[in-house]
Specification:
Number of helices: 11
Distance between the termini: 17 Å
Number of strands: 16
Helix content: 25-40%
CATH architecture of the largest domain: 3-Layer(aba) Sandwich
Structural class: alpha+beta
CATH class of the largest domain: Alpha Beta
Order of helices and strands: EEEEHHEHEHEHEHEEEEHEHEHHHEE
Bound molecules: oxa(dethia)-CoA
Shape: globular
Strand content: 15-25%
Number of domains: 2
């Protein structure tokens, strides 16, 4: 990784030092959905790869899952929340529009000296959060930044719309980013680079129309079901395959790599066919690609940490391994990060 000369010294690199994940215990299976909308287990499995997803109980909100994931990450690192410098909560399902979920999480954790904010980039949210955290650390101004992806998608999904209700689940994941002196070059440990992008011309293809300042909540917006996710699935699908491939390819090329050099691709879990199509174009084999969408569905900002946990559990991600995180989401947003795993 490139080191930047600072006034009289060098700025550090950034590495991931801990991971924590949480999913609520309740499970909604494809067979459950067969009783709710006109669909079949076979259709959902074949078209998406999803078998089941976790759903939060009514009393649980995004901050509750975020706190659970954060506590696990902090315990894994063996540090107290009071040591955190910043907390970034990536979510499209905040507990409320304000205060930010980051404030609720900071208070619950007792992260006394942390500042923070919510980051809205939908399915690319966690990767944008990690990009931001890496740069806060690389700037030399932050030593411990906690990035949390938490989404309670079940609260904004229309369970009468078979095109969307089969896709999403609830969950949260957190990663801790800290400085490193090992990141001397691209072969070092930690953050290597990013290739993020937004294309706002795609905004209409995936959105929650009502509830903001454009269309505040009224009896009419509720009656018209405008507080639920609306999606043009085919257009999102095509864009996701193309951009997950192109942005990953370009980032790898920038550092002299191809898909074959990557140990694992940790891709946003929106549809198994999207992940397979993008990774095949990158020249990767299925051994290099992490898939856990069968168990969790699309948890929006939580898929990247959840898939990272799966990679570690499957023994596919160890210290020194090259990992590419890639996601495409509402906006459109595209997020791709290259990291060399640090523990
Ligand atoms: O993370 C955010 C980004 N989101 C995504 O990446 C989602 C991207 N899109 C997709 O994953 C896919 O487009 C879907 C899974 C949402 C839909 O799959 P598809 O293969 O694109 O299906 P389609 O929309 O082209 O629909 C094909 C047929 C239609 O029936 P007709 O018109 O051919 O008779 C749909 O009505 O499948 C029907 N259909 C269903 N049938 C059974 C749509 N949803 C269902 C369903 N069960 N749940």
């Amino acid at each position: 990784m490139e080191r930047v000369a600072a006034l009289g010294g060098y700025l550090p690199g950034a590495k991931i030092t801990a991971l924590g994940c949480y999913v609520p215990p309740g499970v909604l299976t494809n067979h459950d959905l067969e009783k709710m909308v006109e669909t079949t287990d076979q259709w959902i499995l074949e078209r998406t790869g999803i078998a089941e997803r976790h759903i939060a109980p009514p009393e649980m909100a995004s901050s509750d899952m975020a706190v659970e994931a954060a506590k696990i990450a902090l315990a894994n690192r063996g540090i107290d929340a009071a040591e955190l410098d910043a907390i970034i909560v990536c979510t499209v399902t905040p507990d409320m529009l304000f205060p930010a979920t980051a404030c609720l999480v900071q208070n619950r954790l007792g992260a006394k000296k942390a500042w923070g904010f919510d980051l809205v980039a939908a399915c690319s949210g966690f990767i944008y959060g990690m990009t931001t955290a890496a740069h806060l650390v690389k700037a030399g101004t932050h030593k411990k930044v906690l990035v949390i992806g938490a989404d309670t998608m079940s609260r904004i999904i229309d369970y009468t719309d078979r095109g969307t209700c089969i896709l999403f689940g609830d969950g949260a994941g957190a990663m801790l980013v800290e400085p490193t002196d090992e990141a001397d070059d691209a072969a070092g440990i930690g953050f290597i680079g990013f290739n993020n992008e937004i294309d706002g011309s795609g905004g209409d293809y995936l959105k929650q129309p009502a509830g903001g300042s454009r269309m505040p909540a009224t009896a009419e917006t509720v009656a018209q079901r405008l507080h639920y996710v609306k999606q043009d699935g085919q257009n999102v699908f095509k864009y996701a395959v193309r951009k997950m491939y192109e942005n990953s390819r370009d980032l790898l090329e920038r550092y002299g790599y191809t898909g074959k050099d990557v140990k694992v691709m940790i891709a946003h879990q929106a549809n198994r066919r999207i992940i397979t199509a993008a990774s095949e174009r990158l020249g990767m084999t299925c051994d290099q690609v992490i898939i856990n969408i069968d168990r969790y569905g699309n948890t929006t900002a939580a898929t990247i940490p959840l898939a990272t946990r799966t990679a570690i559990e499957e023994g596919k991600l160890k210290k020194g391994d090259l990992a590419i995180f890639a996601a495409v989401g509402a906006g459109f947003t595209v997020g791709v990060n290259l990291w060399r795993w640090a523990y």
